[in-house]
Amino acid sequence: MMMDMFHETVRRAGLPSRRAHFHDFMLDMNRDLHRIRKQVGGVRDPLALVAQGFVRESPLLCFDECHVLNVGDALLMRSFFERLFEAGGTVVATSNLAPDELYSSGINREVFQPFIDAILKHCDPIRLTVGEDFRSSKSAELAAADGARTFFWPLGPGADRQLAATLETVLGGGPPPVAGDIEVPMGRQLPCRRMWLGGGGRAG
């Protein structure tokens, strides 16, 4: 929410800004790498071209929910952000972890350290400490007002029953779920155990 508000504010001020969630950002970066390699061939530093393209499109990158779980992402992010800063880009990012806690127990973390160093050099970390989980409290507030919740927690049989009841309301007693594949970017398929393909009802 905070990133959305910031992004909208700078756009209204006339500053080109690109907002990207971590997973969408990684997909975009891999897509651009694939495109450049097809167009240019074996260029020595394709990530530099990707970073320069990002900066040409928007000098400000609003990077939401930065979270690194595997060494491949760690290496890509290190190289990309080093080149993004070299190209004059500006980054505003959010994360549930402080910069020096990212990828803290990952394999070969030392190769990721230059990314952390670059973030600390070019950015000013700000820690927001709030005692209230607004997602949980707002959900409880909505439930008390009209019996609806925005998400179900904790996970388990109770949450499964609540989700099934909500889907029944939304889908109006349509056909049962089926297994199948969903098309995702870069020509891949995402296997899905349960998909609801239709229904005539809607949530009231």
Q: Could you characterize what this model shows?
A:
With 204 residues, the chain is an alpha/beta fold. Helix content is 47%, strand content 14%. It has helices at residues 2-12, 22-40, 46-57, 71-86, 113-122, 134-146, 157-171; strands at 17-21, 60-64, 90-93, 178-184, 188-195. The longest helix is centred in the N-terminal third of the chain and has 19 residues, at 22-40. The protein starts with a helix and ends in a 9-residue tail after the last strand. The strands form two sheets. Strands 1-2-3 form a three-stranded parallel beta sheet, sandwiched between helices. It is built from seven helices and five strands. It is globular.
User: Helical content, roughly?
Assistant: 40-55%
Mean pLDDT: 82
Order of helices and strands: HEHHEHEHHHEE
Helix and strand composition category = alpha/beta
Terminal-residue CA separation: 25 Å
**Rg from Cα:** 21 Å
Number of E-type strands: 5
Stretches with pLDDT under 50, minimum 5 residues: 199-204
Strand order of the largest sheet: 1-2-3
Count of helical stretches:
7
Q: What share of residues are in beta strands? A: 5-15%
Q: Name the shape in a single word.
A: globular
Largest sheet: 3 strands, parallel
Task: List the topology elements.
Layout: H1 2-12, E1 17-21, H2 22-40, H3 46-57, E2 60-64, H4 71-86, E3 90-93, H5 113-122, H6 134-146, H7 157-171, E4 178-184, E5 188-195
Parallel strand pairs: 1-2, 2-3
Antiparallel strand pairs: 4-5
